[in-house]
Fold:
Amino acid sequence: MENWEKRLSCAEECSRCDRPLKNKERRILSVVDHQPICLDCKKEEEKNTDYEDASRQMMAECVAQTGKPYGDTASYCFHHFCPFKCT
Ligand SMILES: [Zn+2]
Structure:
């Protein structure tokens, strides 16, 4: 999990719709499969009726695994809810 930034933050395409992502383009992690997706796909994901439950569960697991608090903006967990760019 330490290398998540390298593996995920600079993904060159959305894993859901295969749309190319530019480095400066914002992307976000799916709470379902933890893959980087574009913001349009995130909007779709948020429409799922179990999205809230999935989010809560993902967060509990993520915080337990990383030992980092939810509010840590540099944390892997946070990027499931806060868009980020490849840096
Ligand atoms: Zn997409």
About this structure: The chain is about 35% helix and 5% strand.
